[in-house]
Amino acid sequence: xxxxxxxxxxxxxxxxxxxxxxxxxxxxxxxxxxxxxxxxxxxxxxxxxxxxxxxxxxxxxxxxxxxxxxxxxxxxxxxxxxxxxxxxxxxxxxxxxxxxxxxxxxxxxxxxxxxxxxxxxxxxxxxxxxxxxxxxxxxxxxxxxxxxxxxxxxxxxxxxxxxxxxxxxxxxxxxxxxxxxxxxxxxxxxxxxxxxxxxxxxxxxxxxxxxxxxxxxxxxxxxxxxxxxxxxxxxxxxxxxxxxxxxxxxxxxxxxxxxxxxxxxxxxxxxxxxxxxxxxxxxxxxxxxxxxxxxxxxxxxxxxxxxxxxxxxxxxxxxxxxxxxxxxxxxxxxxxxxxxxxxxxxxxxxxxxxxxxxxxxxxxxxxxxxxxxxxxxxxxxxxxxxxxxxxxxxxxxxxxxxxxxxxxxxxxxxxxxxxxxxxxxxxxxxxxxxxxxxxxxxxxxxxxxxxxxxxxxxxxxxxxxxxxxxxxxxxxxxxxxxxxxxxxxxxxxxxxxxxxxxxxxxxxxxxxxxxxxxxxxxxxxxxxxxxxxxxxxxxxxxxxxxxxxxxxxxxxxxxxxxxxxxxxxxxxxxxxxxxxxxxxxxxxxxxxxxxxxxxxxxxxxxxxxxxxxxxxxxxxxxxxxxxxxxxxxxxxxxxxxxxxxxx
Amino acid sequence: xxxxxxxxxxxxxxxxxxxxxxxxxxxxxxxxxxxxxxxxxxxxxxxxxxxxxxxxxxxxxxxxxxxxxxxxxxxxxxxxxxxxxxxxxxxxxxxxxxxxxxxxxxxxxxxxxxxxxxxxxxxxxxxxxxxxxxxxxxxxxxxxxxxxxxxxxxxxxxxxxxxxxxxxxxxxxxxxxxxxxxxxxxxxxxxxxxxxxxxxxxxxxxxxxxxxxxxxxxxxxxxxxxxxxxxxxxxxxxxxxxxxxxxxxxxxxxxxxxxxxxxxxxxxxxxxxxxxxxxxxxxxxxxxxxxxxxxxxxxxxxxxxxxxxxxxxxxxxxxxxxxxxxxxxxxxxxxxxxxxxxxxxxx
Lengths: 647, 347
Known about the structure:
heterodimer, B: alpha/beta
């Protein structure tokens, strides 16, 4: 596409049009002036024109029926998927039995010992305390179920990720092919992965494990490739100059040099796997996630919290241990003898537990948290939900938010003619990114229309927009504050650390307690989930502004607001755009899950499809989620994609 | 002169699309670098370079950044594949070597020391030094023992178990040097080894190289952008500009007889009395005497001769193998310092 270059002086062109942005918009307006009347004349309709939809639910339902009918007879299932399914079940079962055989004392001891050797005494104590807390809450068995599923899923993810990452690290062509796939997978909400695996494997543990693997393997692959490619060129040259063969180069230099990235990849894979293993309770993963899911379904906040706390503890412990391993990667490894002693100690504790006949967590040692929590929630419902003088109540807030923000945005979006929505998407994407990203975004949006889920998608979109707006206002404000005050940042950092490690699912519990069910709590959960990343990226971006530029502004006598407005914010623009992009992606992920707490729209369609066995509805919604995710990512994608940290 | 270790003839390295057509095309080879780039999109890093490196000498390739010197040294062991020309090591054509032969060359005959050291951060000093031997497949005990000797030789005793991150820049480069020495190569290649170091440490390391060379007499090819380093270390210097060798000669030849204005500009600030030898400065012809009190060696630099002459207050004889070659006096010595000595007297 030919864009007018600004270099040649053009006589008679108004100054405005010399801006690239203005040129893009002008071109788009020209395009629209030709196409819109045509489109409007043919398919005049506010919503997506019916003539342009393709009904895919029938063939999908047929395919789903066919698979269900043939699952036990067709050779593809008998000799391929069947084996995979059986192997997964067997592995998870084996790990689960192993964990049970070790007993609660043994598992706690092993966890503490690993934490001690990898990360020191403090974390060892923390790990032991976390495991004991799981037991105290009466969640020992579900915790072990989740852990067993996690162990298998993480092992497979790491294996798959390593193989893909090695290939991408060593072959340029494979890297070029793999990267866009990984980029895209990274922006898709976890819910989108559930239905395809259910279609093939049915609801149950194999589907849960495989969905987890698909979700958790990409960061491992990405970071492995990054580590292999980022190795110090001179070191590799030195190794080659000494006459190393290719395998020697790989084993003695490239892989050890990438150790930090590999461990970071392991960390991210574990965190993603935990996040997904919990969400996969919707497709039969069992364990802690299932408890939360069941409790949320009956709006039993106390029970949800009892299962939610172990999830958070597990997340924090796993994150800290693997992160510590990554940070220590460059240092000298500890002595083998210490490991041996540690292992012996763990085995002794496990045996002692076994001999004492205390393998299962004793029932009398549990603390009932659900009842007091539920009483507190009841009290809140009675006193804080509404009618609090002056400030109103939480339910009132939620109601106001729904009436004054969510509803107008939704009806506004649905009122817009379909071509106007497409035009808007194109304009935004092109202004921020390139014509390529704009084209992808428009095609993705059109795909939603073609699938025939225009209306619910716009509903989801309205929630996303509202949540992103709130997130950005809060996030930028907090980020700017943290960038300006060291003390505030120090206070904020541990909070952000904990919030960023928690699985998406967990955020639903407190918002249900506060706001009940509906679209507003879904939006609230999304805001809370996306906020830490936005705050962190904003703070980092502002802090990384060239100190020399800031100093020169200060030497010219700029006030601190002037510094912020004229130096820091403009220079941190790439970081702010990245924060926007990340915010949108994270918000979408949780808004979709919000379908579980009355968020409605696409997320509800997926849950409904799963619950009713109506896979066609679910799959169409899943595809729409993919399109929506792609569209939102591309619309907010800055011209140069930065390598993203975090999720 | 002894037989050449390395013999480089008409070497070209052209980066860019279809770079291999450039060296054979007289029209293209005549182009200036900027023109060549705009015409073909190619960059000629090394252009028609020829030289011999003799056994036991320190051969310095000197030039500013972008002159192609680092590319040149990498071409010698084909870390960068040359585009045209020939490289011969001990009579064997390097460019014709197959993979195994080439690996053999890198393992045993030429080892390289890098600007940023190129150490493996996850290994201890001793394992870094032993790395080349490990690559060759030596057993652990043997390679550790040999590495230990070299570690002692470069003055790193007591640091064997440290990691590169725990060392200073100078110590790291000692590890880099030890790693190259450990494989006992015929030739040591240095790629700007000291330019990342502080001035004082750099001088230490230069003296270390001088010491090692005088002890072992190993052939060295030394790349640098620092003229004083080149003059200090080099037996012969190849001065490069835009991929070509503009002058090749002893330090004294380069300082006293710059080949063109570029070289002249380059050596303008050199302390000539530190480079020029008495052989050049003397008035040739014997002194007719048989006794030569306070005689000077012809290879001594003028700075040392000034001390002798100033102390004795009279002209000094230049004596080689008991034969008087000439005489230096105040006038000749001052002429060297001032740069006004009569031209074309050096033999």
